[in-house]
C-alpha cells in the first residue's frame, strides 16, 4: 500500500488513515468537484486505500501534514487556556524546573530564568507603591533588551497591563499613542534619543509619572525618575498572587499597536485568552526546550513578543535578543549563539539577501524560519542561499481572531484551506475562517439576492474573515465602539451573524493553497479593471537590477479610477538610471502585464519609508503622486511611442497628462 509522504512506517500510515476516517462530515464535500464527490462515494470514507485517496484528492498529503501540525498546537492551546496557564505561570514553572538555565541572551550576556524572575519581583514591588487599580495600563517605550521582559512580567505580577509604545515615534504620533493608552505611568528604556523625544512633548503629558532605565538621577530632567536606582532599593521578594486579583481570560495583558501602514497606530487589545493561545503556536514544528530563538524585530509588536517570547516561555527555551535589526550582523549572531529558530516579518528576508554573499551563508544551526510577509519572488532564493531546511509562513493579525499557516514548504503560500480542513481543524464555530467574494470598486463583499455573502471557489480571490468567540471578545482595539465596529462584517451566512475582517485579499488555488494578494485599498481600479499592487510588484521586482518596488494607484485629472505608479529602488552596486534599464522595465511590463496593469509612472528612490513591521508605506507616495512640485526624485512616464519610460518634466507635464496614456 502506498503511504502519504512523511509517513514513518506502517503504524504511522494507519494513524493517518484513521485521521481521515475520523473526520467524515457532510461539509467535507464543500467546493469539491462533481468528479471528486463521486470518487468519495465510490471509495468509501472508511477503509479506502491511500492510492485511491491520492488519485482523486492529490492535495490530501498536504492536508494531513497541516491537520497534524495544527492539531498539536490546538491541543496544547486548549489545555493551557483551561488551566489558565498565563505567562506568569509559565515563568514560575521554568524557575522551579531550571532556575539557572539561560532564558535571555543579550549582547553576549546570559540572563537566567531565576534572574529575570527576581528583577520582575522588584518591578512588581515598585508598581504596588503606585496604588493603581487592577488592570491599569502602564506604558513601556523600550528597545529590545532584557528589561523589556522583566518590566512586563513585573507589571503583570502587580495586576497591571502593559502598553507597548513604538520607540521610533516622535511628535504628534507619539502624543497620540500615549494619550489613547490612558496610562498614568510611562517607563522608557535606554537611549538618549528616547528621552529627547519625550522632552519635546513634555507639555502634553503633565500628569504622567515617568521612569527612565539606564540613567542616573543626576543626569535626568527633573520630571523623570531613575528606575535603576529605585529598583536597587527594592527587594526582589515575590508578591502574593492575591495582589493580581482574580484572574480571568478576559483580563487585558497588554496593548500592542498596529503598524500604521495607513495612518496613526491603534492599540490592539491582547487579553489573557489570546496571549495564552499564541504561546502554543510553535508546537506546529515541535519547538522544544532545547531550541534557541532569535528575536530581532521590535518587541513592541506581536510577531516578536507574542510569538517568539511567549513560545520560548511556554517551553522553557532560550531567546536571543538584539536591540535593533542588523542585516550585516544577523547571521553572525545566529552562528555565535547556535540559534535554531529564526522569526521574520515583512521585508527582513529581502534585507538579508542584499548583504554580499559569504561562504558562511549556510553555516548555522537553524532548522526553521517562521514568520509572515516573505514575498514569493525571493522565497526560493532566501531558502537556497542560506540553506534554510524549512520555512513556515503564517497569516494572522495582532487584533485578529484566526490564523492559518503553511507547514508544507509550498513556495509562496501562506497556508491552506481545503474541504477536509474545514471539516476538521476549522469546524469549531469559534475557529472558522472563510474567504468571501469581494467587490474592489465598492470595497465591500459581494452579496446574493438574500443579502448574504458568497464564499469563493478555488481559482478565485476573496476577503479573509474569521469567526469571533463572543465569550472571549473584549474588543479589537482600545478605543471607541465605532473603531471596533469597522472590523466587523455582518450578515455573512445568516442574518445577525458577524465575523472579523482582516482587510486582506487572498487567492485560493486548485490544490487549496492560499496566497496573499493585497490589502483592501491596495487593489485599485483602472480602465474598468482591478489591478493588484502585489502582482505588479512581483513582476517588476524580478528584474535583476531592481532592489525593491512599491506599487500604488494615483489619480489623473479627467479619468475615472486610479492609474498605476511604481516607486523603484535600484540595487546599490548598480544604481545608475540608464536608457537600457528604462527600456528593460518597459519591456517586462509590456510582456508580462495586461495593458491596464502597467504602471503609467515610475519614481526612482534611494530608500522607502517602512513601518516597524518592515512593510512599505504607501500613504505618502499616494499623496505625492507624480506631482513635480512635491517630488524631487526622478519620475518617468510610460512612453508607448518610444517603447520606454521617458522623463516626466515641467515642460512635457501637461502634455503627458492630456495624452491617452
UniProtKB/TrEMBL annotation:
Q: Which reaction does it catalyse?
A: tetracosanoate + ATP + CoA = tetracosanoyl-CoA + AMP + diphosphate; a very long-chain fatty acid + ATP + CoA = a very long-chain fatty acyl-CoA + AMP + diphosphate
Single GO molecular function: long-chain fatty acid transmembrane transporter activity
Q: What is its EC number?
A: 6.2.1.3
**Signal sequence: where?**
none
GO terms (BP aspect): long-chain fatty acid import into cell
* Domain annotation AMP-binding enzyme C-terminal: ranges: 535-614
Q: Which Gene3D superfamilies match?
A: 3.30.300.30, N-terminal domain of ligase-like
Domain (AMP-dependent synthetase/ligase) spans 91-425
Q: What keywords appear on the UniProt entry?
A: Fatty acid metabolism, Ligase, Lipid metabolism
Its GO CC terms are:
endoplasmic reticulum membrane; plasma membrane
* PANTHER family assigned to the protein according to its UniProt record, in alphabetical order: LONG-CHAIN FATTY ACID TRANSPORT PROTEIN, VERY LONG-CHAIN ACYL-COA SYNTHETASE
In which family does this protein belong, per the annotation?
Answer: Belongs to the ATP-dependent AMP-binding enzyme family.
Name the chain's protein. long-chain-fatty-acid--CoA ligase
